[in-house]
Write a structure and sequence with these properties.
Helix content is 77%, strand content 0%. By secondary structure, the protein is mostly helical. Helix 1 crosses helix 2, helix 1 (21-82) runs parallel beside helix 10 (270-301) and helix 2 (87-107) runs antiparallel to helix 3 (112-126). The longest helix has 62 residues, at 21-82. It is elongated.
Length: 383
């Protein structure tokens, strides 16, 4: 990534003491682009280090946690047979065993042999068949998606990942939107026409810079081998920048080969500066989107809160927090597995699970009531 943008700026000329609004915007866009580039570079540098620690420390610890979770389910199964419980406590225990087996199977962190054992435990305590229930859930999901989004997932939904289902939905919705746009026969407004004209002129401005650079740097016109090699490298940078509509790099290349000077930027006509600013705004938007997508992908890969603020600077702290929490959860599972063997502690734990579930049910009920009241408001209030 080429980050040499310090020379790209407009300064007041000898005849003026103040920059115009367009010149100030140009300088501001250049600085923002530089900031986004540095952020991308920081992500590219920090991510491999995070992945290395994740593989060396977190994954082994997570395997330990997964094993302890599996052992706890077996302990609960053994306790269901050995300890005499009231009807209420036994019902709660069965619910816990079924819920935990389902959660562990869905996690995808276990071998086929472990999954078979977990399915057997689910079948034993639920009185149902796991595979039959899973097939029924898949069918309900497929019907729901077909009714809501008109997405036909076929008979292979059980083999589709969440990403593949989302992709099918996206493709269907995109096709519908495209069809609606094609059916639209409305004339373009004057504003749309002006925007298209400005975009065309902005593209023309970038194309003109590219042609000038290509003319000055074309290696086939150079007889000196060393100079031909230098121009070949520069021309590769020109082609890359032009392909990405990277105006900043094209201007930087012009400065490097002394094709333009700082005074050239200072003397840009207002209309040309407007077109440059339009291209720079587009370039900034792409960089901002790239940073956003990189951050979002990182959060998804490492199971971080999507609404949490994550930056290359605080990655070390985020990682340590995750690792500490995982170690703590593993230790709690170790202790719980032994403590629950005491009938009194088991009964107290089952009571706590019921109380927790009541709180969750109450919160769900409040949310449903709120949604019902919200739906009663007329749409005009939100326009």
């Amino acid at each position: 990534m080429n980050n040499k943008t310090s020379q790209i700026s407009i300064t007041p000329g000898s005849s003026t003491k103040k920059l115009s609004a367009g010149q100030r915007k140009f300088n501001g866009l250049v600085k923002k682009i530089e900031t986004q580039r540095q952020t991308l570079l920081a992500w590219e540098t920090a991510t491999p280090l995070y992945i290395e620690r994740w593989r060396e420390e977190f994954i082994p610890q997570f395997h330990t946690f997964s094993q302890r979770s599996l052992e706890l389910v077996h302990v609960l199964d053994e306790l269901s047979e050995r300890i005499k419980l009231s009807k209420t406590d036994r019902h709660t225990l069965i619910q816990e065993i079924c819920a935990q087996t389902l959660s562990l199977i869905d996690s995808g962190n276990y071998t086929d042999e472990d999954k078979a054992t977990l399915k057997a435990l689910y079948n034993k305590h639920s009185g149902r068949d796991f595979d039959a229930d899973a097939s029924e859930d898949d069918e309900l999901l497929k019907q729901g998606l077909q009714e809501i989004f008109g997405v036909d997932l076929g008979d292979d939904i059980d083999t589709l990942s969440a990403e593949e289902i989302a992709q099918k939905m996206h493709e269907r919705l995109w096709a519908e939107q495209t069809a609606q746009q094609q059916q639209s026969t409305g004339k373009k407004t004057a504003s749309h026409l002006r925007q298209e004209a400005d975009a065309a002129q902005a593209s023309q401005s970038v194309r003109e810079i590219y042609r000038k650079l290509a003319s000055a740097l074309h290696p086939d016109r150079e007889t000196d081998p060393d100079e031909r090699e230098r121009k070949t490298v520069l021309m590769q940078r020109v082609n890359l920048a032009y392909g990405e509509r990277n105006l900043l790099d094209l201007l930087q290349l012009q400065l490097e080969i002394e094709h333009i000077s700082a005074d050239t930027l200072d003397a840009l006509p207002a209309d040309r500066l407007k077109h440059y600013n339009q291209v720079l705004s587009e370039q900034l938007g792409k960089l901002q989107n790239e940073v956003f997508e990189m951050e979002l992908a990182f959060k998804q890969q490492f199971q971080l809160d999507p609404f949490d603020e994550v930056t290359p600077k605080n990655l070390a702290g985020k990682y340590q927090y995750q690792l500490d929490m995982l170690i703590n959860d593993t230790e709690e599972l170790n202790g719980l597995r032994e403590e629950l063997k005491d009938p009194n502690i088991l009964k107290a734990w089952l009571k706590a699970q019921r109380e927790y579930q009541k709180k969750m049910d109450a919160m769900d009920l409040e949310a449903d009531l709120f949604d019902e009241q919200f739906d009663k408001f007329p749409d005009s209030l939100f326009r």
